[in-house]
Specification:
Low-confidence stretches: none
Mean pLDDT: 92
Strand content: 25-35%
Helix content: 25-40%
Structural class: alpha/beta
Number of helices: 13
């Protein structure tokens, strides 16, 4: 049985898969996209979208509670967690429905089932009703993403110990106390949600700072803000055991060599993600993998001709927009059209590529970064000029009574080419796009100063940081 024929068979309907499907269909390819879950993958269903919906709600609630600083008064401010989670779920459904509508308009076939690649390159799909279908394609694209990683310590199988995906889909949503293992992006974003909604939150992080890959000034400032809001942060700490104590969980961890305990309602394990390849290939398929990740070449093709992979399943930077950019690149190459996206570039003053992928943290204030950080540049021996601007005197920050904020922009010391930027302020996740574009196009500080930025805005602080560098 040859199975149904398509130009492109896509496994995984997340940001890598659905972007590839839409791009391919618009270029005239026949496309089938297969996923064992709902369209949208982890990002829409159990990741980015539900997390950001909860962050939006929690931020609004905190603003209402603290509205007295603006001369406003609101009595009996409260929340209904069931309705908050309904709002989160409605946001998910709306995005799913929009994707399904686009698939229908573009003629994309969507199949619900578990896909397995066979040695003859056909894709076998186990359907929910017990049936089996086969699909063949000129090309196959794997975009199955990654799943949350658990740690091997006693108690990880207890009820109430969960990953972010389980937390975001759990029927129970009220936790009076929560211990979060891991001070990375996901852990911190969810810490701010449950803290704002009145929960007692403890973060246990093995590194000597939160957000280990970020500029230390920003991680230190964020830690100060979170601590002032009542979040307990234990760095250089290791969780050793979780055990049952009545209706709660007892967590034993070591902090700076001393044993400590915390009694909580739930434990969130947020220590990274692993490539989702379980059952993806028959045992006789000679796909090359390293540490569980699919290995690809510079064009995202695997060691098997015609089979490509993008996104979290190949490792690297695990962000939705990276998977989408990689998917766009692959489909454009399949159709011999000029590529419209890049994820890294080599500035004229350097001999090594730097990432132009924006990294965003949706806390309050938001944090966004692109390119080199100051620490990374100095570690690599890259001569730089650093422009820095504290947001305390920014007009919009004064109006909105922001706690703290800073913008740093890095330029090559000799050529004046922009190399990186880090922002901590409201709208940082929107503003970072301008600076990513500047890096991609090799702009100098002089060129960045040509354009006026409106007053009063948070964005005008970019001009102040650039001017400071000069």
């Amino acid at each position: 049985m040859m199975g149904k024929q398509y130009d492109l068979v896509i496994i995984g309907a997340g940001p890598g898969g659905y972007v590839a499907a839409k791009k391919a269909a618009k270029l005239g390819m026949s496309v089938v996209i297969i996923d064992k879950g709902e369209v949208g993958g982890t990002c829409i269903n159990r990741g980015c979208i539900p997390t950001k919906a909860l962050i939006h709600t929690a931020t609004l609630y905190r603003d209402m509670v603290e509205c007295g600083k603006f001369g406003l008064f609101a009595e009996k401010v409260g929340f209904d967690l069931r309705k908050i989670y309904e709002y989160k779920d409605l946001s998910i459904v709306k995005m799913q429905d929009e994707l399904k509508r686009e698939f229908s308009e573009l003629g994309i076939t969507s199949v619900r089932g578990t896909a397995t690649v066979q040695s003859d390159k056909r894709v076998r799909v186990a359907l929910p009703d017990g049936g089996t279908e086969y699909f063949s394609g000129k090309y196959t694209l794997i975009a199955t993403g990654a799943k949350a990683r658990m740690v091997d310590i006693p108690g990880m199988d207890l009820p109430g110990v969960m990953t972010s995906e389980e937390l975001l889909t759990a029927k129970r949503s009220r936790y009076r106390s929560l211990l979060i293992l891991g001070g990375g992006v996901i852990g911190i974003e969810l810490a701010t949600v449950f803290n704002a909604l009145g929960g007692e939150v403890t973060i246990v992080e093995v590194s000597d700072r939160l957000l280990p890959n970020m500029d230390r000034e920003f991680s230190d400032t964020l830690e100060e803000i979170l601590t002032n809001r009542g979040i307990k942060i234990h760095k250089e700490s290791i969780l050793e055991e979780v055990s049952k104590k009545g209706n709660n969980l007892r967590c034993r961890y070591v902090c700076h060599g001393k044993n400590q305990e915390a009694e909580v309602d739930a434990v969130l394990v947020s220590v990274g993600r692993t490539a989702n390849t379980e059952g993806l290939f028959d045992t006789d398929v000679p796909i090359r993998k390293e540490n569980g990740r699919i290995v690809v070449d510079d064009f995202f093709e695997t060691n098997i001709s015609g089979i490509y992979a993008v996104g979290d399943v190949i490792g690297g930077i695990q962000l939705a927009h990276v998977a989408s950019a990689q998917a766009t690149y692959v489909v454009e190459r399949m159709n011999d059209v000029p590529t419209s996206v890049i994820v890294e570039m080599v500035p004229s003053c350097l001999f090594v590529p730097i990432s132009i992928v924006p990294s965003c943290l949706y806390t309050d204030p938001e944090i966004a970064s692109v390119g080199l950080t100051e620490e990374e540049a100095r570690r690599k021996g890259v001569p730089i000029r650093c422009g820095r601007y504290v947001m305390d005197v920014n007009g919009q920050s004064i109006i909105s009574k922001e706690e703290r904020g800073v913008i740093k922009i890095l330029f090559a010391a000799d050529s004046d080419v922009i190399l990186g930027a880090q922002l901590m302020c409201p709208r940082a996740t929107d503003m970072i796009g301008e600076l990513a574009t500047a890096i991609a196009n090799g702009l100098t500080s002089a060129q960045l100063m040509y354009a006026m930025r409106a007053h009063p805005t948070y964005n005008e602080a970019i001009s102040c940081a650039v001017e400071n560098s000069r």
